[in-house]
Amino acid sequence: MRRLLTVILFLQLSVIVKAQTITGQTTDEKGAVVPFSTAILFRSKDSSQVTGGVSDEKGVFKLKAAPGKYFVKISLLSYKDKFININLVKDLQLGAIVLKPGSKTLAQVEIVGEKKLMELDLDKRVYNVSQDVSNIGANASEVLANVPSVTVDVDGNVALRGSQGVRILIDGKPSALTGIKSTDALRNLQGAMIDRIEVVTNPSSRFDAAGETGVINIILKKNKTRGFNGNFTGTLGYPQQLGAAYAINYRNEKMNLFSSFGVNQRKGPGKSSTYRTYESADTSWAYNESMRRERKDLGANIMVGMDYYLTDNTTLTGSVLYSGGKENNVSRLRYEDLDGNGQIKNATLRINDEDAREENTEATLSFRKKYDQQEKENGPPM
Question: What does the buried/exposed string (b/e) look like for 17-39 if buried means 16 or more CB atoms within 10 Å of the residue's CB?
Fold first, then answer.
């Protein structure tokens, strides 16, 4: 037993003595250290893997193996693999190992993201309507009708969660487009000018909304990216639907000039018919009613304004908004009384021709100051 233990110990010591160390350091073509590269040692005769390791933050790696013929593979993402043939007899120092780039390096990478269609904040829900292609060519009234929990009836009255006790603001301020005049004026505001809609179902005292069920804040497009920026949109649809819009701005260090415009012309035909009959032992008659209608809408809006940055946290904003539109609704109703044989006994034709025009011009001047405390602002009461 003693002899056996002596032999085993001798063999282990022989293996330890025979193990040699391979050391190297990875750098790039400019001599800068390349850390955390992978070094793997393979036998030359059969390419079987012997050992491996990862270089440290200084690019240095160490491998141990018995004497013999090997090759080392050094690799790292975005660099070409490096192969080195070695004949290991004693400790080997490979020195600096230069790794070459394996792909082209981009001088600049631009990452472009898009807003979500709906965002949830602590006190409101934000609908980025400009991200919804179904709003192209629609007016503000139709855009609101697509917002969840908001309904708009045929007369343009807006309700939030079934209640019409809702306050509508434009850019956080009351506007003639939202109820000072006819609520139908929202149909003259083109949806292409709207950036997002904020729905506040539990308004704070900041909105002075006592007794109201909520607040709908319509935010118009106003780009604040430096330099000259803009987007242009055109729509064409059937039945006749023609529209065009733009939103442009120019910003430098001290001011931001912005403008947006939208125009839309639509023609909506429609028809309906009703036929009724009555028969009894001594009487029979029939009644026929048919109706054709055509609704024409033309609406346009233009807004120009300027932000002047007094300081990094203080902004003075002035803008002018013009909105105009006209409608023409023509309906033709024909009433026919028929006898039992289906012959016309009496016929009446009624024509309703309705024209409506509306114009609105408003100017706003606002002062905004941000304090260091997050979300705290000073401005005119709303």
Answer: eeebebebbbbeeeeeebeebbb
